[in-house]
Amino acid sequence: MKNMYRKMASEIASSLKSVLHRIDGAVARRSQDLPNIPPRLVAVSKTKPVEDIIVAYNAGQRHFGENYAAELEEKSKNQQILEQCKDIKWHFIGHLQRKNVNKVTGAPNLYMVETVDSEKLAQTLNTSWGKQKKPERLKVMIQINTSKEENKHGCDINEVGKLVDFVMNNCPVLELKGVMTIGLMNHDLSKGPNPDFQSLVKCREEICKAKDLEIKDLELSMGMSADFENAIEVGSTNVRVGSTIFGERFYGNKKSSTNPASHTDSVASTSLGDPSSKETISGTSIDVTNSLDNTTESIQKLTVKN
Ligand SMILES: *Cc1c(COP(=O)(O)O)cnc(C)c1O
Predict the structure, then answer these.
(1) Which one-letter DSSP state was computed for residue 61?
(2) Is residue 9 predicted with pLDDT exceeding 50?
(3) Considering the entire predicted model, what is its pTM?
(4) 292 and 209 inside one domain
(5) Alpha-carbon distance 108 to 90, whole Å?
(6) Ligand 1, atom 14: closest residue by C-alpha
(7) Ligand 1 pocket check for 200: Cβ under 6 Å
(8) H-type helices in 139-291, by residue range?
(9) Is any ligand 1 atom within 6 A of the Cβ of residue 243?
(10) How far is the CA of 29 from the centre of ligand 1 (A)?
(11) Residue 163 sits in a domain of what CATH number?
(12) Do 213 and 116 sit in the same domain of this protein?
């Protein structure tokens, strides 16, 4: 195990370097009309151990993304992280249930919550952050379900204006920084740019027009391992990259592997990644037909093959 980990450590550093290089390449290709903002890389460390985060941190990475409230809470309060990664910046990128809001707002070094998708959640976050008595407002993005998939979270694209208004007018300790989407994941780039990314770009334009904001003041969080370069080419300012940096995610070691129900559980709580990918859980092959939403809904989308 130790040796395996050693190998991974150097791999993490070199993968990180290669992702940063590819980001530069994509920036060079993007349209000159787009705001000249260097895209931020969020290294998505969900399911990965604290040691891997420290390796990436020591290689220069500062922004990290987690999408389970409990996992963010645990990692952000980890003693090694607190001592060795003083300048770490956490992004919450998963579906946030209101009962878990305090776990997220209480996470040390929380930088941004990218997944506000309802007025109720915005309200709860606002109240909870207010109680933290922090000097600065909490940066948030509104997650939009651009692909209109039932099993994905995010605000309906037609409701975004209302939610923007709500955050700006009713949530004094939240600071609206941008809009975020996951989008369809197996888009074929030979057919042109991902329509989800284009919807998000257009949505930002409309928000800016309605609210008299400058385009450069509203960020776009889009792009993951499979498509971050394409996302940057069309304007992403925040890419969330996990497996390309840290390696594939394995879900085998968290729960008992004998009970099929617990397989479903542990996958559901970590159901992510490329929809076509097969992830191995204790020798059980599982099609992760759904994508990123860490919800009970996604249980139904998973098929466990024995
Ligand atoms: C897991 C996850 C990512 C990273 O996915 P990769 O394909 O591993 O890069 C990005 N965004 C969200 C919301 C995620 O849950």
Answers:
(1) -
(2) yes
(3) 0.83
(4) no
(5) 8
(6) 292
(7) no
(8) 160-170, 195-211, 228-233, 243-246, 260-268
(9) yes
(10) 23
(11) 3.20.20.10
(12) yes
